[in-house]
Amino acid sequence: MVLETPLLVCEAVLAESWHILRGRPAAGDVLLSFLEEETLSVAFHIEDHLAEVRRLLRKYGDVPMSLADACIVRMAEIHHRAAVFTLDSDFAIYRRDGRKPIALISPSAS
After folding, report:
1. Would you call the peptide bond into 101 cis, given omega within 30 degrees of 0 as the criterion?
2. If phi over 0 gives left and psi between -120 and 50 gives alpha, with beta otherwise, what is residue 24?
3. 18 to each of 50, 79, 95, 107, how far by Cα in Å?
4. What is the largest CA-CA distance in the chain?
5. Which end of the chain has less Cβ packing within 10 Å, N or C?
């Protein structure tokens, strides 16, 4: 599978990724390089979608849904043709636009 770049990302995912990569400075540097080289592009500004993100966090509060997850689901609602690359099995539960499954690129989606 060939992915088109830039891959769209939100700041919440960058922060969560940075946290996961803590203690691995080289990996964090690669993450920042992806932004510099435009392999990744920040394509979501939460302040423009607060009501929708809050709706998702309430709807999936029992999962529980992280802020990054809510932003990604909202991005899937905005970018209908995009697929979500994830290792998080909760994305099999989440729905965009109320009831539509989210296209996933994930080992658990196979």
Report:
1. no
2. beta
3. 23, 24, 26, 22
4. 40
5. N
Determine the topology of domain 7-109 in CATH.
Answer: Rossmann fold (3.40.50)
All residues at 6 or more sequence positions from 58 whose CB lies less than 8 Å from its CB, including other chains: none
Q: How far, in Å, CA of 110 to CA of 99, rounded? A: 21
Q: What is the pLDDT of residues 19-71, one digit of tens each?
A: 999 999 999 999 999 999 999 999 999 999 999 999 999 999 999 899 999 99
Question: Rounded to whole angstroms, how far apart are CA atoms 82 and 7?
Answer: 10
Q: Supply φ then ψ for residue 9, to 5 degrees.
A: -145, 165
Report the pLDDT value the prediction gives residue 48, as an integer from 0 to 100.
97
Q: Tally the residues of the chain.
A: 110
Residue with structure tokens 């995009």?
Answer: 82
